[in-house]
Amino acid sequence: MDYQLDLDWDDFLKNYWQKRPVVLKNVFKNFIDPISPDELAGLAMENEVDSRLVSQPNGHWQASNGPFESYDHLGEKGWSLLVQAVNHWHAPSAALVKPFRKLPDWRLDDLMISFSVPGGGVGPHIDNYDVFIVQGMGSRRWRVGDVNQSLKQYCPHPALLHVEPFEPIIDEDLETGDVLYIPPGFPHDGFTHETAMNYSIGFRGPNGRDLMSSFADYVLEQDLGGEHYSDPDLTLREHPAEVQPYELERLRTMMTDLVNQPEEFNQWFGRFITLSRHELDLAPAEPPYRSDEIYDSIVQGENLIRLSGIRVLRVGDNCYVNGELIDTDFIDAADAMCRYPLIGQKELGEALEDPAFVAVLANFVNSGYWYFND
Ligand code: AKG
Predict the structure, then answer these.
(1) Which one of 110, 243, 282, 319 has the largest count of C-beta atoms within 10 Å of its C-beta?
(2) Membrane-spanning residues where (predicted)?
(3) Does the beta carbon of 131 lie inside 6 Å of ligand 1?
(4) Tens digit of pLDDT for each residue in 24-78?
(5) Which long-range contacts (CB under 8 A, 24 or more apart) does 343-349 make?
(6) Domains in the chain and their CATH numbers?
């Protein structure tokens, strides 16, 4: 389905994005759920798929991780099933992410889908990412509190992090086609009235710790930063056990100089940011294609489809896919691979006549990053 989101994006970015939560009423007109509860339950039975069941039998919170073998033990009230990264596994659900491509691809995390029966929910909590919660079938009451309330968090179960009760600034029923946007840090809680499907499109910014740790791995891998601290200008000091401020400054400069190499920084970031945090539905081509087969199919009018959920991004003058450089000088063709989910002769242009480019493309097709529709 071609989902249309009726939203004034300029107004949204100016007034709400990363600033305050908002309920966007009926922005998906005539919304049809892309997946049925049975299909979602089936996905949560798969090993590769990340899923959770959260329930409150007798008022006590319970949580367990999939894959699940059966749902027979669940009653008609007080539970919900949550499945992460459904956009990686289910093409019709992935279509729901498309209207959010007004926001940068590199900030997208995944589409999480929840199915909840009356009284179900995951409880009051705080996330550190932006989320658009689309109401599919059924209805739920959402309460959202203000940020900066220094609310205490606690674990009612080892797998759940809840937040203490909060005063709502939003307290509204969501109906089919409504969207609730919540920036990071705002406590929220959804309570199901009528058996419901909710679609959470999450956007996550990396934190400094993850950036540092990945950059450190890159420095090691690329054998950068091998120069040692040196001090030919050393003079006598009165306190031999003190590291002097100018020495600390030099050490800090040694470290920041490593980050301040734009080419290395971009290379690292391109690889880092195109690695998916969630499992991909990768199916390497079997048997593998030869380059000339790929070339022939494309010039005969076939298109390559990008694997759903795979991250393909342009960083500076290079493009990256799933942690790898798209190693080519045909930047327009590589750029098209980032921009469009479907690529063919028109998008790839003259690059198709270059055997080295086609070999790079064949390699990605054989890895399962792109596939022909057959
Ligand atoms: C979230 O996506 O942050 C939610 O709280 C959704 C949980 C749900 O659908 O029950």
Answers:
(1) 319
(2) none
(3) yes
(4) 999 999 999 999 999 999 999 999 999 999 998 888 999 999 999 999 889 899 9
(5) 343/303, 343/304, 343/306, 343/370, 344/298, 344/301, 344/302, 344/303, 344/304, 345/298, 345/299, 345/301, 348/298
(6) 9-203 (2.60.120.650), 208-260 (no CATH), 291-372 (3.40.366.30)
